[in-house]
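Changelog note: in this version the structure field was regenerated for every chain. One regenerated record is shown below for reference.
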Amino acid sequence: MSLSSEEHPRIVVDVVIDDHAEEKTLEQLREALLEDPPRLPSRHFYDDRGSDLFEQICELPEYYQTRTEHKLLEDIAPRLIELTGAERLVELGSGAATKTRVILDAMRAAGCLRSFVPMDVSEGIVRRVAQELVEEYPRLEVHAVIGSFLEDLSSLPQGHKELVAFLGGTIGNLKPEPHAREFLSNLARAMGSGEYLLLGADLIKNRRLLHAAYNDSQGITAEFNLNILEVTNRRFDANFELGQWLHRAFFNEDEHRIEMHLEARTDLEFTVAAVGVTRRVAAGDTVMTEISTKYDQQKLEALLACSGFELVEFFTDPDQLFSLSLARTV
């Protein structure tokens, strides 16, 4: 790990450097492509164009998650600070930290705001947000970590009176068993005893609403899904032809999850040269690109309990579309 200090005295940035990161990425991609059906890890959605497309998705009328979670945060933020007494906010996968400001504002209003720890793989965004926040919050200290919340939790700086936020329903992108449980267990070990986690999770709901959210009328989600092929072509020397694939998203009833796939329009063969994988697929076969598991309160409480947390309070919006769970390490 290398430590660098910004020109601003209230900003520190830890860049987690792993000499084997690219090797791990290639191995994970190879393993995913050899699954049945083959899979492209969803982390490869987010080049510059993918990030821009996802921002557009968040503004779509069909995509309820972002605005619902933001409104819910606004409603409960004072209660969160009352319950936790948090002086430091840690956000995993912080991105542009848009929703973060709701919590920071509540901490400032309560007179307990001391520091913010954003963790994200995108160094440029984190450095920009750190500069913005120290200007918006005159006494705030920012200790940023450039790294993966799946692999680098041990690099988080230690603190106390801490609230860790994992928002956006990202927990749904991990299979409940074993990946979500393993991630939360690792997080509990990285946190101090009696510290708090705020976990955002999408809820099981009307299938029509779910289908519309991932099959928007403007086709932005389809563009976002297909863009992973562009990223794979460019970064891993693949030969996907975008015109040969269709966006498919549907609700898997057995697993309680949305699945996003790319469906082959015709019989075809593709090669990802960087990992030495060639696959033949028939028309109608798919490559999976993402899952988004939906939860209810009982499932979330059970997941938290087996991962080293106890549920303190469960919050949801009036339409029960989205949830925020406040939990404490045991």
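Spot check on this record: The CA atoms of residues 69 and 322 lie 6 Å apart. The two ends are 29 Å apart (CA to CA).
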